Amino acid sequence: MELTRRGFFKATALAFAGSMAYELSTQSRAFGLETGEAADDWKLVNTEEYTNICCYCSGGCGLICSVRDGELINLEGDPDHPINEGCLCPKGAAMFQLRNIVDDKTGEIIHNPERVTKPQVRRPGGTDWEDISWDDAIKEIARHVKDTRDATFVLEEDGVTCNYTPAIGSMGGSQQNSEEEYLILKLMRSIGIVAIDNQARV
Ligand code: SF4
Questions:
Q1: Alpha carbon of 39 to those of 45, 64, 69: distances in Å?
Q2: Which of 5, 88, 145, 174 could form a disulfide with 77 if both were Cys (CB 3.0 to 4.6 A apart)?
Q3: 54 lines ligand 1 (CB under 6 A)
Q4: Which atom of ligand 1 is nearest to the CA of 84?
């Protein structure tokens, strides 16, 4: 087939118009209401957005959690977050399942029964984890830290003042923000802990 100059421009214009029509039609499906669809049918209607950080690897990708009446409705990457700019890897994208799962039998979304919602402790020599209240957990941790620090505190080494304990370490997580890490560092230094690291560096 011989293609004239006029025919080439006509074909190009038709192809452009076709692709624009497709683009606009798909966008209207993605961002607008279908004919007859009520606004109340939108998954995210009447939700509040909270930003959060993925709890898995040290990347610290940002999330938007959409919540209605205290229930998590949707979780997605935060496009305004400087690390992930809205993207999530498959593991992060599946983080919704930490809280909610689909019931095998009914197909309904239910709370994940495996989710750990309380502090737990495994006593020395024990094989099972037992639930413990937050108050008791904090008291026990404080008592262990104080006892260990007092028993191992080094005031001086080779005539040099040291004031540290080699028996306790601190590992921060990528989920903590800069202010939280600052406070953790202050606390650790103030009680003589020098073995300090962060998961985000690993
Ligand atoms: S979304 Fe993936 S890459 Fe980002 S922090 Fe979570 S696990 Fe890491």
A1: 7, 21, 18
A2: 88
A3: yes
A4: 4
